[in-house]
Design a protein that fits this description.
Elements: E1 16-21, E2 48-49, E3 58-64, H1 67-74, E4 82-89, H2 94-102, E5 105-106, E6 109-110, E7 115-118, E8 140-147, H3 154-161, E9 166-174, E10 177-178, E11 187-189, H4 192-202
Parallel strand pairs: 3-9
Antiparallel strand pairs: 1-3, 1-11, 2-3, 4-8, 4-9, 5-6, 7-8, 9-10
Length: about 210
């Protein structure tokens, strides 16, 4: 489908919420095994997650009742950016960071080029309820990693390939929407301006 040069505003009748998915919560509303789900936090009808986060990952999840927005957020060809804060074992050198930037070979083929930087200090976020694996005398650090694709457990697989296993993974942003102002388990309906900014960002032509 051809995208217009000047897209229409996001429909005011449609809903988008941002949610800080806590550790240990499934990205679905029901679970036969009784594990924590989105339904434990969000009580809204006819709204669905646009994408997913693994049970052991945390951070930003967008949910919407607009099928077009959901499609553009989840279809890889639109190359929509997602930014993660990643705590890894040991301190990556510039060679390891360059490997991540250029793309690495994982199951399913080479990853797309990514934006990667070493954070000067840990991000200001709450502690995880289940502590990370800690190994005495093994340092750790935080990376900021922005991808334009979302394969299964991609971030964890990428850092493992370059020798720095992921200890904790928090998605901070999806396009222009971030976790700013939220706490784990909290959610907020996007206002008209924020929803429109998100809608316009996903209508940009890939490449």
């Amino acid at each position: 489908m051809t995208m217009p040069d000047h897209p229409l505003p996001f429909p005011a009748t449609r809903r988008v919420i941002r949610f800080w998915k806590p550790y240990g919560v499934l990205t679905k509303f029901t679970d036969e095994e009784g594990r924590p789900t989105l339904a434990d936090y969000i009580d809204l009808p006819d709204i669905y997650a646009a994408g997913r986060l693994d049970m052991d990952s945390e951070g930003l999840l967008l949910l919407t009742d607009d099928t077009r927005l959901n499609h553009r957020l989840t279809e890889p060809k639109f190359e929509h950016p997602r930014t993660y804060w990643v705590q890894v074992e040991r301190i990556p050198d510039e060679q390891a960071l360059d490997q991540l930037r250029r793309g690495v070979e994982i199951k399913g083929g080479r990853t797309r080029p990514a934006q990667v930087r070493l954070l000067d200090s840990p991000p200001d976020i709450p502690e995880r309820p289940v502590p990370i694996r800690f190994r005495k005398n093994v340092p750790d650090c935080w990376l900021e990693l922005t991808l334009t694709e979302g394969r299964n457990r991609q971030v964890r697989r990428m850092t493992a390939v370059v020798g720095h296993p992921t200890l904790r993974l928090v998605r901070w942003a999806i396009g222009p929407i971030t976790l700013e102002g939220l706490e784990p388990g909290g959610w907020q309906m996007l206002d008209e301006q924020a929803a429109d900014a998100l809608w316009r960002s996903v209508q940009r032509r890939p490449g």
